[in-house]
Design brief:
Arc Repressor Mutant, subunit A, single chain, mainly alpha, 176 residues
Length: 176
């Protein structure tokens, strides 16, 4: 007679090859309190919260109700998330507008919220940070050929998400 199979523990093989035990489903109230703490700790976008709910085993109407409740109680506010995200990435990581927009789109933030987020970046500060990034890269580069140095410095700033036209204007000023 075949052996009885114990389905009480389901094991999933992840992409990395490590075994991961599937989480048990939590109740709706438990999930709500966990997500309230999750959102209170740091601003979150809708996609992050939805993903966290799915990880907790909350689906369908319960998921939508919890999302609505978090929004109603102001734990979840996508515009606030977008604004703080843009401010933080610009000030701390010195990212340009293009990179910030790309990252917000990756998180499925609405165009309206993205426009609001970009309004958080002061034009004078943006220009100042771009200059600082270019000057720092110029001073740390060991390239002797001015033409190659210009290309490397400009490429660096463009990878950080600054607009190519602006980058090249300032590079031409810094490295005539």
């Amino acid at each position: 007679m075949p052996e009885a199979i114990d389905f009480s523990k389901i094991v999933i093989l992840t992409r990395t090859g490590l075994k991961k035990e599937q989480k048990k489903h939590v109740s709706r109230d438990e999930a709500l309190s966990k997500l309230q703490r999750y959102c209170a700790y740091q601003d979150r976008c809708h996609q992050e919260v939805r993903s966290k709910l799915l990880d907790l085993g909350i689906y369908g109407d319960d998921l939508e109700q919890i999302m609505a409740e978090l929004i109603a109680d102001d734990f979840l506010n996508e515009e606030r998330f977008a604004r703080s995200y843009a401010r933080g990435k610009f000030r701390m990581k010195q990212w340009g507008r293009i990179r910030i927009v790309r990252e917000l789109k990756k998180r499925k933030v609405s165009e309206y919220c993205i426009r609001k987020a970009l309004s958080e970046i002061d034009e004078a500060d943006y220009e100042k940070v771009l200059r600082e990034v270019l000057e720092k890269k110029t001073s740390t580069s060991s390239e002797a050929d001015t033409f190659k140095l210009r290309g490397k410095v400009a490429a660096y700033a463009i990878r950080r998400g600054f607009e190519p036209e602006r980058v090249w204007e300032i590079v031409k000023e810094l490295l005539p």
